[in-house]
Amino acid sequence: MERDIFSNISPIDARYYKSSRELLERLSQYLSENSVIRYEALVEGALIGVMERRGIVARGAREQMKKALGSITPEEVYLEEEKTQHNIRALVNVLQRRVSPGVAPFIHLAATSEDITGTAHALRMRDAFYRVVMPEALSLLDVMLDIAEREAATAQIGRTHGQHAVPATVGFLFAGYADRFGLRLQKMIEAVDSLPGKMSGAVGAYNASSLIFDDPRKFEEEVLAELGLKPAAYATQIVEPEFLLDLIHGVVSAFGVLAQIADDMRHLQRTEIGELAERFEKGQVGSSTMPHKRNPINFEHVKSLWKEFCPRIITRYMDQISEHQRDLTNSASGRFIGEIIAAFTLAVNRLARQFKKLVVDRARLRANLELIQGAFLAEPLYILLAARGHADAHELVREVTLKAEKEKASIFELIREDGRFLEVVQLDSWKNLERGPEHYTGRAEERARAIASEWRLRSEALRRRCSEYREAEL
Amino acid sequence: MERDIFSNISPIDARYYKSSRELLERLSQYLSENSVIRYEALVEGALIGVMERRGIVARGAREQMKKALGSITPEEVYLEEEKTQHNIRALVNVLQRRVSPGVAPFIHLAATSEDITGTAHALRMRDAFYRVVMPEALSLLDVMLDIAEREAATAQIGRTHGQHAVPATVGFLFAGYADRFGLRLQKMIEAVDSLPGKMSGAVGAYNASSLIFDDPRKFEEEVLAELGLKPAAYATQIVEPEFLLDLIHGVVSAFGVLAQIADDMRHLQRTEIGELAERFEKGQVGSSTMPHKRNPINFEHVKSLWKEFCPRIITRYMDQISEHQRDLTNSASGRFIGEIIAAFTLAVNRLARQFKKLVVDRARLRANLELIQGAFLAEPLYILLAARGHADAHELVREVTLKAEKEKASIFELIREDGRFLEVVQLDSWKNLERGPEHYTGRAEERARAIASEWRLRSEALRRRCSEYREAEL
Amino acid sequence: MERDIFSNISPIDARYYKSSRELLERLSQYLSENSVIRYEALVEGALIGVMERRGIVARGAREQMKKALGSITPEEVYLEEEKTQHNIRALVNVLQRRVSPGVAPFIHLAATSEDITGTAHALRMRDAFYRVVMPEALSLLDVMLDIAEREAATAQIGRTHGQHAVPATVGFLFAGYADRFGLRLQKMIEAVDSLPGKMSGAVGAYNASSLIFDDPRKFEEEVLAELGLKPAAYATQIVEPEFLLDLIHGVVSAFGVLAQIADDMRHLQRTEIGELAERFEKGQVGSSTMPHKRNPINFEHVKSLWKEFCPRIITRYMDQISEHQRDLTNSASGRFIGEIIAAFTLAVNRLARQFKKLVVDRARLRANLELIQGAFLAEPLYILLAARGHADAHELVREVTLKAEKEKASIFELIREDGRFLEVVQLDSWKNLERGPEHYTGRAEERARAIASEWRLRSEALRRRCSEYREAEL
Amino acid sequence: MERDIFSNISPIDARYYKSSRELLERLSQYLSENSVIRYEALVEGALIGVMERRGIVARGAREQMKKALGSITPEEVYLEEEKTQHNIRALVNVLQRRVSPGVAPFIHLAATSEDITGTAHALRMRDAFYRVVMPEALSLLDVMLDIAEREAATAQIGRTHGQHAVPATVGFLFAGYADRFGLRLQKMIEAVDSLPGKMSGAVGAYNASSLIFDDPRKFEEEVLAELGLKPAAYATQIVEPEFLLDLIHGVVSAFGVLAQIADDMRHLQRTEIGELAERFEKGQVGSSTMPHKRNPINFEHVKSLWKEFCPRIITRYMDQISEHQRDLTNSASGRFIGEIIAAFTLAVNRLARQFKKLVVDRARLRANLELIQGAFLAEPLYILLAARGHADAHELVREVTLKAEKEKASIFELIREDGRFLEVVQLDSWKNLERGPEHYTGRAEERARAIASEWRLRSEALRRRCSEYREAEL
Hints:
The structure is a homotetramer.
Chain A: E1 2-4, H1 15-19, H2 21-31, H3 33-53, H4 61-71, H5 74-84, H6 87-96, H7 113-150, E2 155-160, E3 163-169, H8 170-194, H9 207-212, H10 216-226, H11 242-268, E4 276-277, H12 297-309, H13 313-318, H14 331-334, H15 337-356, E5 359-360, H16 362-369, H17 378-387, H18 393-407, H19 411-417, H20 422-425, H21 428-434, H22 444-471
Antiparallel strand pairs in A: 2-3, 4-5
């Protein structure tokens, strides 16, 4: 059923589809209504498969199902649903029409709808992550590692409270982003791998399957094993909601890392700061009336998407509650989970594209470092004094700082001239500092390199896992 | 640009589009990307219109614009945006190509992008509400008033803490729903009517328009008046965000009323209660494996949509913050507002459809009223005792209640036999109560009728406003 | 019952109590557990009062109640509650002990607990707002109006996307803050004035009071009138939750305005910007190791409080749902509302204190205006060209801007030398602009003054309302 | 500084302190302002300790610190903070006064405030969990396991959509609660154990400590090891926020499990259901006017606390963003984290107390099972038919169910009489079912026992970990 995308109401299906078509097509394979039906049919197929192996349904049943799966369309299932008012019953009816009369009654046998729906959902999530989300995320991770290494030694003033603090390096900053983001990816993969399926019937107690099998839990394990899944220890009509919640927590908290990055970039691109910036494309218009503008629109976009999607985690926490053996108030809401994953992947992808061409303005970095001439000396002076046992080190330094500020004098000179600092100014380490703020970056470069190199290994390991996953035939 | 709806990721553009196509098509006229561009062009048209009237642009300019508006397509604008990376500049370029060279330079003159975008947004919201949301909401209000009046005298046990309290009536319950929902509609209309437009330039200070007009604020008022809007006292690049926030607060809090209704209905349909229920359609399947099930799937759906959309209000509160004269981090997020309005309208519509055929099971209502035989007497006994100055009225009644419970005795008899209650049991009002719990409903019926009749008037007034709005040519 | 404040778990009762003791003591009169009991007793008093007037209870009853109210303590009520496990029953018992046996049975007669609790809550909220919150908020409003007027003409570069846009003035910025904040105060007052009480019994249908009065709704109105309140059209056991929700929406959205202000201030105090700043006190320590730091800790604090309290609005939306005639799941949560109001008032108070001594660095304002020399000319050049019918005005200006940037040339000169701009550079308005960016502030000063003067009037009106409220004896 | 608790504004410090004093006193040791200062001093002590071991400060320094730690009071530190406007500098000043002049300058040397604050926070969280939260949670887990085992075979109708589905057992229900809750506890412990400390200075790059040590990261590890902590790979001024976020996610999602349990209990206690209930205490008052009420006030309380605290997770996600090397907008908000933990522990404790005396009404359980006579047969009939290859099994059963409903006939008889079911009704498994719904509980009992016994082991292991933790001297 075709429709003009510009008539869609969700920006993901309209505006962002237009601008990120290829990526959204890939995600659509796991997050669309189409995929819902396809994966549910797959689970029904696995169910028949095990019944065939166990001799309950005639040989060839699974083969029939495979063909059936390939040919059903969402339209057909929806048409049937208009009659049944029940989506899984509709799917079963449609499948039954496509297999032989001897096989038809066995479709869905011993399963409740949620055995199919819940299991299919786990499968879709897993595929979406291993096939699209994770590869995209690793690309972003890698480009951040590139910057971390390339700019490991590029000094940059550190900022706390929006105020100049002491220097570190651009690479150190990006190593931190990579570390935070990478740790989130590991959380996500862990959560994805924990997603259980189920095949335990209407209230999770194997009531129906107990009538057919002596070992209904064993049967459940077999069906799920066909799909690469495991059951949890317990289920009601639905799988325990915490597994999925942990995954979405992983996504939303990873999104939070992107939001931090986007905010940092926005501010570092401020007119007054200008250290890092989005590349401004030829022909691009900054403003409809102010042609000189260079706006960080992509970083702003990422932050804005986070604002839209972060609060949606609350729905996930609400969906932990499903009265008794389940109510359906998590059904419609559950259908919107795909949007969170799509939006996150869009943000990841956009950030990666920007970072590949990130503008690093070395002149501005240097100029900012020297903006408050010598202010960076306050901390080392205090440290070196205190380390020598000076009683009022902090107060002393506060004094000389205020004096420099008041008299607009060079703090270097004030320190050099003040007898109380004699012991310090003769130190080699002090002389090194006098060469400039870029010589007071601590272990920023070393740490940037160490963190980046650790994450290179982990990134490759994750990438390998994704490849292996894709290669393993379902 | 056509696409299979089943490839969409948002349920609103796929699953719910399939099942509520007609309604979503109507909403799409105001909430889709298509409508965004159409309304923005409309604002550019009004701008030219006033310039023509003021003699700044040649006569006939507005007429040219009208034709241009009618022929542009989103595809074209998006294609242009690929070059400009700026959506309003793209629109302006496309419009300029369609008018004469004498008119072209005046398109968008003195406006900043947000003058167009923000004003168009206010217009779309207003049209969406007056043309679709409000009429749908009034239909729901009316059907609730129908039930309030029809069932004004139908006694129903009141429930507090899930425990039987004292009786009221079904009509009283629905009168309450109507009152709460109706008050929300009034809030919404108030908020819609307050939405301001703007035409005050890049930072809201009329910098650009001051160069052309001596009375830039007057000019702004004229342009907005063309569109039926007014400016607020102040704007930066964007209109003050609180006006829109109040509207969304109206929507989300009205949604909360629906959530309460849905929850009540779900519980009143419980197997053990069964007082009110969704009509179960012929051919409908309750469960894929439990054919006897009668599930309140529509009420569950409404509650579930609320769970999905209520937390999104947080994004609106976050979007109050737009650094300095504006940052763009409210742009992507702002595009998702249409989904909230669409989902609310879907829920309204679904509830109205269900209420039109609501099952009221009088036998179950009666049976439940009498479930704890005589328990409802506890309160009036206590009241009548206390009103006669009995010192320990509450304690006395507690005692007899516990006794009846313990001895499984009739509380009527225990009271009648207990000398301490003699004074009370001889009262006419007591004798009336002994006729049964339906005689202890206070002023439920009277209030149900009074509230319903008040809202009949208000509902008609609102409906009239909507009609007048639609009839007024823009 | 005394306890060391440093053992408290809530920062409001410990850290912030220490630093804002006087303000929190005032708020405590309406928001503490102590006040809960005091106001509930007050409602019981009003109930007796009307019964006395109607001749149901003996003369002098109200007088007895007044004395009783004055002498009860929370400890006593809590001790009683340990027995009853019911807070209102405990209060009633305690009150009954303090009045004559003839009056005792009439205490609480015909009321359900929520008649007392809900009504008392409305009273506490109203008093808190008129007596503390609103006066504090008006002080903040006034100091912002002071700045708006004082700095009405102080030019400041406008910033969109964090990039320099075109200039406005500091006063214009503060006029906008005042307008947004002031409008929120009006919303709040409107919501406060709408808070209803109730006296309609266990399920809102006047079951109990109908036994005693022929006109139970009239009786309700009388009792509430004693307290300056009105009933809503409908209630269940509880008042409709939307009235309180609107109030909290008012508070949280006003808090959002503070968050915007705090963010703006934080950024304007950045080392690289330095236009506005918190006054740094003598003796204050910026950092434990970096004595040169000047951190905007108060602005940061306000933003941080907003982050803590904004999401709590979700609880209020959740509390719209109270199953059937009420469940108790809004009880514990409802007790935390006081924290929101307290935190908002703390933030208001802190911001007012900072703004009274706000540092306005005129040199930095000027320096920043001239940071991108002449860039501000891009917009007016484009406007003046386009207004003269130039076809490619936007493109032309984009070109010259890029050229100036590339060649590091003066844009003034480039424009003056370029024949295509001849017509423009001869204009008086252009010559005016050449005098500097402070001459391109549009109507910023005029609007700042107009908005400020309008709000002076409204602020006084609001302040008068608060005084009148305080003076009216309850 | 003493204050009447009833003047406090937070219910945790007033109402709930009154009713859960002992528990809140224990929590206060780790969550109060008092504890904040105590733990921060502890970290300063560890720092001196390592410096003494490394020979930087004179021998005996740590001993001096130990004494100092024991004698400082919050009042003193707060008094000092009034001067410094900086809490850590105030603490350092207070400590310095208590040690010898030779030691004083070395206090806090090379540390930034957040090295102390962040590390102390991790320690407090860990202690709170191992010493109070986890032991309380394990008590709840254990009582749920008790019920799971005791009621493993107690049949109970399963409910989906609020409608009777097929039976399981009470023990199975509680096994599920235990499994979900237990898994959350494991997540929490994992998160607690991951909390890092830091000692890497103002921007995380070891700038200051590099001046004193050749191996600043090694030094950091040594200091943290003193406290049983480790550094993360990266820090800015603050530790990466995701570690704490994961912990709070653990708490809030565990709280969600409690909310589900509370909701289930509330509904199972409904007048019409009455299967499980809170024990009603002698003397307890159900309602101030309806003495017969038995309200699930404790279950309602737990749900209500969840409503209050769940949305606060949003603040934690917001606090992931701290601009550049940190802004302070996570400081005030971070102080409220203790409330979440306290409220969760209160809920855990209350639920455990209720479950210890949970009323299980076997008569009502049995009556409800038989409420829709024979309806439970629909599923097994369908299964057994389908398993025999019947083409229209689902439709056939739907038919007979509707017939039974319509004719108010016994479904047992209808089935027995209908030739189409002949094959099925002769099966042993069918005859077993005819004995009653309690014979169609699948593997509920078996699974309940298996899950309970697995969690017994895990619970003991967790308990052992807590004991070992407590025993290990810090």
